[in-house]
Design goal:
alpha/beta; 5-stranded parallel β-sheet; about 550 residues; 7-stranded mixed β-sheet; 20 strands
Length: about 550
């Protein structure tokens, strides 16, 4: 008899901690998965059988089980996240002594909510099917909700002002928040960049600068983009592509594919070419994102020459007829011919023969994306030295080409560079800086830079959701609140010295040991804050009592 497949949505309560202590919830959500390791014992095999029944469209409910009440006699479950299974079935593989089961999940809700657990004590297992209508009703209500924007107020301000700085006490989760804001704006890892400023960081790291390179036995210098300029080039390409019709995108993608295939084939087969005039032989030896490096053995002074991919693509896109080298000079309206033209001329005419084919690449319309650049500890660098003339370009009122400026090395930027005629910050680029209120370097921030950013104070209460994945989340939040209230009321400290949730996340690493957290992390930090204070011991005793929630020991 043919087996009838169950197409009805099923609901699965699943665990998210390893060894009962280390939560994997943040990893699950970040990677869009759920997984578990099952042993060969009876319970493990039972869970494996259930895991094989999880299918596409089912709902996973990540939860933990615990008891409430003075006598711990009231079973409860706490739900942390809900997600829909998007893989056809569970993936199963053997690893050492365990069987690893996993499935791809699209998480649509995160939070924390408790349900009476008296009717399903068996949910303490790693996997169990949920048939509780109260839980299912809650799940369906969340599936029908519009996605909530947890950081909506910050995103609105960022979209208006282009640049914001998150300030606050150390450990409040400002860096965590910056990354979460970027994700909520739809940024993947490709549309985010992260740097940390420090006293040695400068213009050449951030914008552009000359870097030493070795050419055979000789050493020279080469202009290299800094991390911010490279990031802006990527954002600009997306901005430009999003305005192109699909026919143009298809043609350009086809050209790039033909070019890349030609280059890789030439390198793999060690093909040699010959210039039309001097009959010098040369070969392609390196393929980079923007350049092709050719080796010319007969050229004693400069045996390695970099050619611009953008030049080749431009020539191919415009189907330029090149009969002589000087036709390249005429096409790009250059005053002088260059050595590179000789090699570009030969390669172009070789590649052009393949371009006559119909486009072979299928593409879709490019959506304009947000690009978020995060600068951690923005106040620790010499802002004037790092940004230089970019003070004007990053101004919210001068985004795009109207904010174009000449950089310090503008005169040696090569043709084909998107910023050949001047650098500007594309309109789809946003900057988030973070800084600690109590750092002495705060006052070094240039006022010209200060007025180009909107400043947002972040308190521990704003980011306490960072603790939601802890198994001891309630105790952690209560402890943090008591301690910070005491710190805020302590003369010589105040709100700028409050302890943020980033410190309490260390409970994941130390097995939920609050005493160890105090002795190894929080206590020494507070003592450092109080260095030089005559009443250090008395204050530390008061703070310790607030931390443990009791008077004395």
């Amino acid at each position: 008899m043919e087996k009838i497949e169950n197409t009805q949505t099923r609901y699965w309560c699943v665990g998210h901690t390893y060894g009962g202590k280390i939560s994997q919830l943040s990893r699950f959500i970040k990677e869009g998965i759920w997984d578990a390791g099952l042993d060969d014992k009876a319970n493990g095999q039972r869970n494996l059988k259930l895991a094989k029944e999880i299918k596409k469209g089912d709902i996973v409910i990540t939860k933990s089980s615990f008891t409430k009440g003075v006598k711990h006699d009231k079973p409860s479950i706490r739900i942390f996240a809900l997600g829909e299974v998007v893989s056809e079935k569970s993936s199963i593989r053997k690893e050492d002594k365990e069987t690893i089961v996993s499935c791809k999940v699209n998480y649509f809700w995160q939070g924390q909510i408790d349900f009476d657990g008296s009717k399903y004590g068996h949910y303490r297992r790693i996997i169990d099917e949920c048939n509780d209508m109260e839980v299912i009703k809650f799940i369906n209500s969340k599936r029908n909700e519009e996605p909530t924007r947890k950081y909506a107020q910050y995103i609105e301000l960022l979209e208006q002002n282009k640049n914001i700085v998150l300030t606050g006490a150390p450990g409040t989760g400002k860096t965590f928040m910056a990354k979460e804001i970027a994700k909520e704006m739809g940024c993947s890892d490709d549309e985010m960049a992260f740097v940390q400023f420090h006293p040695s960081y400068d213009y050449t790291d951030f914008v552009e600068g000359l870097r030493p390179v070795k050419d055979g036995d000789n050493y020279g210098f080469e202009l290299r983009n800094g991390v911010f300029k490279d990031f802006c080039a990527k954002a600009l390409q997306n901005f430009i592509d999003s305005e192109k019709p699909i026919e143009i995108l298809q043609k350009e993608s086809s050209v790039r594919e033909i070019l890349e295939d030609f280059i890789e084939d030439a390198i793999d087969n060690e093909m040699t070419f010959e210039t039309s005039g001097t009959k010098n032989s040369f070969s392609i030896v390196e393929n980079n994102e923007r350049t092709i490096t050719v080796e010319v053995p007969a050229n004693e002074k400069t045996s390695l020459v970099k050619l611009s991919k953008a030049d080749l693509i431009n020539l191919i896109d415009n189907n330029v007829s090149l009969k002589r080298r000087k036709d390249i000079q005429a096409h790009f309206r250059r005053k002088h011919r260059t050595q590179r033209d000789s090699y570009t001329f030969v390669l172009y005419n070789k590649i052009q023969k393949q371009v006559a084919k119909d486009p072979s690449v299928e593409v879709s319309k490019v959506d304009r994306k947000n690009f978020v650049f995060i600068i951690d500890e923005i106040n620790r660098g010499d802002i004037s030295k790092i940004f230089g003339e970019l003070f004007f370009a990053i101004d919210p009122g001068y985004r795009g080409e109207r904010g174009k400026v000449n950089t310090q090395y503008q005169n040696i930027i090569e043709d084909g560079d998107p910023f050949k005629d001047g650098f500007f910050v594309p309109e789809n680029v946003y900057i988030i800086g973070t800084m600690n209120d109590i750092d002495r370097s705060v006052e070094n921030m240039d006022f010209a830079m200060r007025r180009r950013f909107s400043w947002i104070e972040v308190s521990p209460n704003d980011t306490e959701s960072m603790l939601d994945e802890l198994s001891c989340v309630k105790e952690a939040k209560e402890t943090m609140a008591r301690l910070n209230k005491a710190i805020e009321e302590t003369e010589g400290l105040g709100s700028a010295y409050m302890i943020g949730p980033a410190y309490f996340r260390k409970l994941v690493e130390n097995g939920g040991d609050f005493t160890k957290l105090w002795k190894m992390n929080i206590g020494p930090l507070l003592k450092e804050y109080l260095r030089g204070c005559r009443k250090t011991d008395d204050i530390m005793k008061q703070l310790s009592e607030a931390y443990y929630g009791e008077k004395g020991e």
